[in-house]
């Protein structure tokens, strides 16, 4: 014997029927917090801000950055 049951309900109705908690407010809060943090970090990723930071340390920081880029290029060319 084969029995098929088809239930037509929304996800909220299914959660309520199964006794699962409604985590919509928690999810909304987490998404808002993630957006706020991403917006705050986007300012640090702007090229002009990065250059200001790097050049504020002087020639030593520029030399370290050049060596970092050289190491990345040589490391990427190795199989």
From TrEMBL:
It comes from the Bacteria. InterPro entries: DUF6489. This is Ribosomal protein S1. It comes from Brevundimonas faecalis.
């Amino acid at each position: 014997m084969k029995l098929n049951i088809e239930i037509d309900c929304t996800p909220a109705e299914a959660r309520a029927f199964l006794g699962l908690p409604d985590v919509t407010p928690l999810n909304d809060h987490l998404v808002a917090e993630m957006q706020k943090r991403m917006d705050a970090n986007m300012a640090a990723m702007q090229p002009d801000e990065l250059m200001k930071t790097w050049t504020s340390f002087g020639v030593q920081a520029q030399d370290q950055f050049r060596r970092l880029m050289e190491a990345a290029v040589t490391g990427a060319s190795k199989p």
